[in-house]
Design goal:
It is elongated, with a radius of gyration of 34 Å. Helices cover 71% and strands 1% of the residues. By secondary structure, it is mainly alpha-helical. It contains 24 helices and two strands.
Length: 597
């Protein structure tokens, strides 16, 4: 049965539409949405739903992240349509085409690398259309023949010039709506070439932060950020223009795609969502009904009146622009998108599936940046940035443990506590700072070093307590079990590093990482058992040595001596002169306590 299911799945994947067909269909639907958005909003909503359903069925050639990113952009377009915001809708449609353009860009260079000239020729015009590049670019690239490096350089230079031009227009715009659209245009162009090493300095987060300031009516801050981005884009353009073809190749892994915040709204929005959208988008009437119903929820009553009036007003404005009815709905969404995904990541940590851990952490980080960071930033900018940095560090860290994810979950709880005017306290803040300081290689190195150093005292223990004296052997075993947990922990970190695809990629070692005391209940119980062994063995060994040194009088020997003295006084008097040597004692151990060795 499982084989038949696998055949069906593979067959469905094989029958997925080619990328060129997917782009043609979705781009056509987006153009229709833009043309009927004012005259027939219901038809526009149906077209967006059709695009989402089509991508779910036929978008097999798109990566999971791109599919989820496009689905999120389509859902945001539904929200913009319901709010009758033409600028927001245009930005979302532009994002959809840009993400498809990213897929076309990667597929185009794959086709060139495989010498598939026909496929490359079909992809190039669609790539140019998706990014709205100059139409003359096609002839220019065709004139370069099959030189991939020159083609890549030409495209990167065109994208870099487009980013610079759009940012310059955004900086000079006095109209906030036009500035928003120009900045979004620059951002969508950057998303296509973000993996180029020559684009170093630019970042999706910087674009989103600039758009967030515009959404908060911070025009001065927006222009300052745009100017910084423009300078960085000019650096990108200069590096592309001055470098020789083939000097730099894009080899970075695919990055997360972040969507711009709503025009006139606040906050950064990052895709993808946790799962591809497979259900039809809700009609505006349904959204309104659900929003009205949500206002009577328990969460809204819980947080009502907790914030000051000015803060509440700013929060309400941001919630509206992000598509939330109230704080209660926002918190419920945070629980579903952050708590649930962090909980799933914890389960994968316990099974040693670090690829799954990284995936769920990335989804959590995206969701936080998209829908929750703007509100948290209004409550406490330091907390918002701290949690953002923590999630970012966790995505890149090696050797994650369940305790790390527990700190991240506590940070979600800290956000809820701040809504009620309280906090988890200094202890939690200290744990987060320690995570930011030691997470990843520093902590792994510390435990691996401890495991290696434990070998030397164990060698000395063997050398010192390895004789024939039973009590000294017991003491040596106590030392061994005392150091055993540290050695196991170090071994688990070695396994985590070697199993990580970025390092050793030895996946068969991943199960060894689950022996960490910080993640496994079995390891914790084993550690507890070794503690009992250390206590028992050290007590037995030390008591025996103390008896041998005469520090403790053996009760059995005293009882035997008393019995002999009562039954045979003559024998008792002669006993000290012919006392038999204790078989446990050797010439090395029969010494006085204060004797110098």
């Amino acid at each position: 049965m499982k084989r038949w299911i696998a055949v069906i799945v593979l067959g469905a994947w094989a029958w997925a539409a080619p990328l060129t067909t997917v782009y043609d269909r979705v781009a056509s639907l987006m153009n229709q949405v833009q043309s009927v958005q004012s005259s027939n909003p219901k038809q526009a909503s149906d077209l967006l739903r059709q695009a989402d359903e089509y991508l779910s069925k036929e978008g097999g050639e798109l990566s999971m992240k791109l599919r989820e990113g496009i689905s999120t952009a389509l859902r945001d377009a539904q929200t913009a349509l319901a709010r009758k915001s033409k600028a927001d809708l245009e930005a979302r449609l532009q994002m959809v085409k840009s993400l498809l353009g990213k897929a076309l860009y990667d597929s185009y260079f794959d086709a060139l690398g495989k010498a598939q000239a026909d496929a490359a020729s079909a992809l190039l015009p669609r790539l140019i259309a998706a990014s709205a590049l100059p139409k003359t670019l096609s002839a220019q690239i065709e004139g370069l023949g099959s030189d991939i490096d020159k083609i890549r350089q030409t495209l990167e230079r065109t994208y870099a010039q487009g980013i610079v031009n759009a940012l310059s227009r955004a900086r000079s715009q006095s109209n906030a709506t036009q500035a928003f659209l120009e900045a979004t245009r620059a951002y969508t162009l950057y998303l296509v070439v973000q993996e180029s090493p020559r684009a170093a300095g630019l970042s999706a987060r910087a674009f989103v932060n600039a758009l967030s300031k515009l959404s908060n009516n911070d025009l001065a801050g927006f222009r300052k950020d745009i100017e910084t981005l423009r300078q960085q884009a000019e650096g990108f353009l200069g590096r592309v223009s001055s470098s020789s073809p083939g000097a730099v190749r894009s080899s970075a892994p695919a990055r997360t795609v972040a969507a711009p915040p709503a025009q006139g709204g606040a906050g950064s929005q990052a895709t993808p969502a946790a799962k591809p959208a497979s259900k039809p988008a809700q009609a505006p009437q349904q959204v309104a009904a659900q929003a009205a119903a949500a206002k009577s929820g328990d969460h809204e009553e819980r947080y009502e009146g907790k914030l000051s009036a000015p803060t509440q007003a700013r929060v309400d404005a941001v919630l509206t622009r992000l598509g939330f009815a109230d704080l209660g709905e926002w918190v419920r969404g945070m629980n579903l998108e952050l708590r649930a995904r962090l909980g799933e990541a914890t389960a994968h940590v316990k099974s040693g599936n670090f690829e799954g851990v990284r995936e769920y952490l990335e989804l959590s980080h995206d969701a936080y940046t998209q829908r929750y960071y703007p509100v948290v930033y209004l409550l406490d900018p330091a907390l918002a940035d701290r949690f953002d940095r923590l999630l970012g560090r966790m995505q890149e860290a090696v050797g994650l443990r369940a305790t790390d994810l527990a700190v991240a979950l506590a940070e979600v709880q800290e956000i809820e506590e701040r809504l009620e005017g309280s906090s988890l306290g200094l202890d939690h803040a200290l744990q987060v700072q320690l995570e930011l300081l030691l997470l990843g290689i520093p902590r792994a190195f510390m435990f691996i070093l401890a495991a290696l150093l434990a070998v030397f005292p164990l060698y000395l223990v063997k050398l010192t307590f390895g004789g024939r004296n039973t009590y000294w052997r017991l003491l040596g075993l106590a030392f061994f079990f005392l150091f055993l947990p540290a050695m196991i922990e170090g071994l688990s970190y070695v396994a985590s590093i070697l199993a990580d695809p970025r390092f050793g990629n030895l996946g068969f070692l991943a199960p060894l990482s689950t022996f960490s005391i910080q993640s496994s209940l079995m390891a914790q119980l084993l550690w507890g058992l070794t503690l009992f062994l250390v206590i028992g063995l050290s007590a037995a060994g030390l008591r025996g040595i103390a008896v041998q040194f005469g520090l403790i009088q053996d009760r059995r020997a005293r009882t035997n001596t008393t019995t002999v003295a009562q039954t045979n006084p003559g024998l008792a008097a002669a006993a000290p002169m012919r006392a038999a040597a204790d078989p446990k004692l050797t010439s090395e151990t029969i010494v006085e306590w204060d004797e110098e060795f």
